[in-house]
Amino acid sequence: IISARMLYLDLELNPSALIQQSKFTSVIYKKFDKARYVLHKLAKEQRKKISFKGRSQYAISTIAVFDCLPFILLDNAIKYAPNDTEITVTFDEVTNPSIHQRLEVVISSIGPFVMKEEIGKLTERGYRNPNAVATQTIGYGLGLYIAQQLCDMYNINMKIQSIKNPPIKINGIEYGTFEVSLQFQQA
Questions:
Q1: Is the four-CA dihedral 121, 127, 132, 134 of positive or negative sign?
Q2: C-alpha neighbours within 13 Å on the C-beta side of residue 52
Q3: Cα 141 from chain centroid (whole Å)
Q4: Which of 43, 86, 114, 161 is at 20 to 30 A from 99, Cα to Cα?
């Protein structure tokens, strides 16, 4: 993860350096499982459980910086979910010879509620939703910004939604179901 973060600095400061990086095949499920393993102790300390639903052998060609994507998304879910809650990662793979192979990965957790008109701002550098700020959780508005850059790099469609159903209020902060969906598709 540390070397992937260092490579991310190249993405930010010197993108042409990434072209020279060695590519390898990454099984998406295994990358999320690795991030879950690395973050297990943090999740356990905060009484949060990370569950996987489904399995997948879907793979893409990546460089090491790709490892940041699952790590960022799971770390954000752990950071903002209330204690004693579950973070679910669902893998839905479709393989059919007559259509494109695709994989959808959905990370779902309870998180600070985000109004519909603010969803697009979450991937802007430095933006933090007022409910996220109110949690007094340390953050710099970089996680989903970096995630979006990595998704753009690999042609992954990332969708974010926040659903206030049922509405939850903890310490005066509105929470809801927060979902990040990654859609991979190969020809």
A1: negative
A2: 18
A3: 14
A4: 161
Q: Cβ neighbours of residue 40 under 8 Å, at least 6 residues apart?
A: 50
Mutual angle of helices 143-153 and 68-80, in 10-degree steps: 150
Inter-residue contact 137 to 117 (CB < 8 Å) = no
For residues 126 and 48, the answer to whether their CB atoms sit within 8 Å is no
Q: Quick one: which of 74, 25, 85 has its CA closest to 182?
A: 74
Cis omega (within 30 of 0) for bond into 166: yes
**59 touches 28 (CB < 8 A):** yes
Q: Which two tokens stand for residue 23?
A: 């590519």
Tokens 């072209």 locate to 19
- β-pairing verdict for 59-62 and 101-112: unpaired
Contact in structure between 72 and 143 (CB atoms under 8 Å): yes
Cα–Cα distances (Å) from 184 to 58, 120, 151, in that order, read 9, 20, 9
Number of neighbours of residue 149 by Cβ within 10 angstroms: 18
- State pLDDT tens for residues 118-156: 999 999 999 999 999 999 888 888 899 999 999 998 999
List pLDDT tens digits, range 20-47.
778 899 999 999 999 999 999 999 999 9
What's this model's pTM, rounded to 2 decimal places? 0.90
Query: For residue 133, is it left (φ>0), alpha (ψ between -120 and 50) or beta?
Result: alpha
